[in-house]
């Protein structure tokens, strides 16, 4: 008692981003690599201490290193989306006097890269407060907390980030229904940080305006995205990685047609494909952010990550379709 801890990881979207906001299917993959996680420690403040929030945003890629810039530290009141989680859980604890709480959040998930950093932070805070307050929240209650914070931050959020940042397996979300898709062969995903990005809120709003201005465009996009995602699911279940890779690249082209890619993400996709990836695409909200590339084996993924670092100066993480424990 007196303190609590919590953790959550980043995620990427393999297929179906943006379409999932309108109920179409999307497939997400957790990125639980070291350095792509959010960790929280919280406690009731001691006598005379200022109630507050301290966030340490680690430089992306690895926890620390001699050539990396120092972490970015923010202090002050708890940000809006997280404040929502904190007040909801303090109320839920039915404490007679609502105490303040000190929160230390350390995140290696870079923000605005489509990696689900806001959901990972909200989930880590939720778990830490659950621990501090002894609430023993169900996974549904945790999801509700994270999702309410996501809605506050993004305006409109499908819920896929809130789900995937707490899952060890790929997550399929379709029409509000969540399931675990079949994976017929292991594959490796190289996650490439383009170094800049935009907020998901901005990207979702841009697309909404564009659909409103072009009648029929939304339906065409949803049909195309749904077909690609369902085809990708069949490829993944059947262990046909090269075919899955082509779906990823097709998905990139589809999103590029909507103006969601940038010169940088387009050129990183090209570089990954030239470097031997089975497929590559932007991932998440877009307008910058991360690119993902599919490789069949760990050595191939490592070689691709090394090539991209050498030739484009980008940091990469690798994650796999199937986690070791599930073999
Ligand atoms: C963000 O990871 C994916 C989007 O589809 C937004 C959402 O699903 O809420 C762009």
TrEMBL record:
EC annotation from Swiss-Prot or TrEMBL: 2.7.1.36
Superkingdom of this protein's organism: Bacteria
Lineage: Bacteria, Bacillati, Actinomycetota, Actinomycetes, Kitasatosporales
Name of the gene this protein is made from: mvk
Annotated source species: Streptomyces ficellus
Location(s), subcellular: Cytoplasm
Alphabetized InterPro entries for the sequence: GHMP_kinase_C_dom, GHMP_kinase_C_sf, GHMP_kinase_N_dom, GHMP_knse_ATP-bd_CS, Mev_gal_kin, Ribosomal_Su5_D2-typ_SF, Ribsml_uS5_D2-typ_fold_subgr
Family: Belongs to the GHMP kinase family. Mevalonate kinase subfamily.
Protein name: mevalonate kinase
Enzyme class: transferase
């Amino acid at each position: 008692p007196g303190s609590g801890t919590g953790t959550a990881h980043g995620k990427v979207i393999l297929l179906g981003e943006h379409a999932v906001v309108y109920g179409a299917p999307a497939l997400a993959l957790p990125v639980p690599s070291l350095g792509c996680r959010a960790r929280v420690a919280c406690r009731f403040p001691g006598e005379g201490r200022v109630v507050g929030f301290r966030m340490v945003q680690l430089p992306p890629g690895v926890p620390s290193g001699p050539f990396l810039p120092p972490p970015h530290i923010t202090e002050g009141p708890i940000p809006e989306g997280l404040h929502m989680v904190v007040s909801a859980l303090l109320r839920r604890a039915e404490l007679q006097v609502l105490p303040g709480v000190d929160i230390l959040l350390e995140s290696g998930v870079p923000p605005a890269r489509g990696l689900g950093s806001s959901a990972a932070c909200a989930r880590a805070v939720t778990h830490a407060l659950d621990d501090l307050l002894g609430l023993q929240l169900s996974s549904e209650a945790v999801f509700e907390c994270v999702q309410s914070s996501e809605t506050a931050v993004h305006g409109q959020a499908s819920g896929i980030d809130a789900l995937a940042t707490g899952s060890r397996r790929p997550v399929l979300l379709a029409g509000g229904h969540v399931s675990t898709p079949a994976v017929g062969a292991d594959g490796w995903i190289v996650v490439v940080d383009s170094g800049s990005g935009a907020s998901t809120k901005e990207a979702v709003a841009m697309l909404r305006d564009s659909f409103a201005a072009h009648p029929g465009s939304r339906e065409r996009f949803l049909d195309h995205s749904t077909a690609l995602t369902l085809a990708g699911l069949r490829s993944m279940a059947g262990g046909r990685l090269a075919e899955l890779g082509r779906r990823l690249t097709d998905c990139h082209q589809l999103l590029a047609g909507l103006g969601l890619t940038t010169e940088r993400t387009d050129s990183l996709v090209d570089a990954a494909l030239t470097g031997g990836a089975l497929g590559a695409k932007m991932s998440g909200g877009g307008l910058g952010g991360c690119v993902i590339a599919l490789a069949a084996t760990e050595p191939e993924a490592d070689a691709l990550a090394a090539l991209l670092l050498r030739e484009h100066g980008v940091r990469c993480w690798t994650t796999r379709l199937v986690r070791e424990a599930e073999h």
